[in-house]
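Record type: monomer structure entry
Structure origin: computed from sequence
Chain ID: A
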Amino acid sequence: VGCDRSKNLADICGEKHFQAFVCDALSVPMRSGSCDACISVAVIHHFSTAERRLATIRELARLLRPGGMALIYVWAMEQEYKNQKSKYLKENNGSKGKEKEISTGTTQRLLTDQVAGSSSQDSACSDQLVSDSKDKGCDARPVGADSRLPVHTNRTSFQSQDLLVPWHLKGGTKKKEESVDTVLAPADSKELQELSPVFHRYYHVFCEGELEAACRSLDCVRVQKSYYDQGNWCVILEKL
């Protein structure tokens, strides 16, 4: 059973005869303890406060039965790790045809949606999570309440933990409400930039240890594994 904030994505799943419904990751309309396993891929990094990011993890834990497992993937601040560049960086200016979509090991269809709020009212909480993490060399800090969020340059290293990522809508002739697919247009592609509307999506990219620290702050789960995978920080949880 799948769920997503985007009705278009849920409709696509329905067309393919999969079970999916529209909901918010902060409040999933399913019974507590009803799931053997939960997967959250590329979701939590779109929430703009540390409290909300933690609340989504707590909501995942609520859905799990005792002994149930959850897998979480979030975008990493460190796109170069142990002297290895992520696929995201390697594809910089490397595509002369269609720009590949960001993925976490599998091809994903990504839809445009409204940019999440960029409130930083949780800076104290976020600072605490970062300071509790095993971060080594990641000195990016949460954006201040009076600051503007930086706009990221696609296929480059991150310069801030809180930022906006440009998304270029494929098929500029479609109306916004009719659009389905989005792609990352190459930075030097003037043609795509002229034809495609540009949307800015909010991301909070996680430093090493930050996701694990957030998970360990909950007493209802145990961290079974924490690892790095192609530009993502990943955690496997077990419900106690």
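Annotation 1: Residues 69 and 238 are 5 Å apart (CA to CA).
Annotation 2: The chain has six helices and eleven strands.
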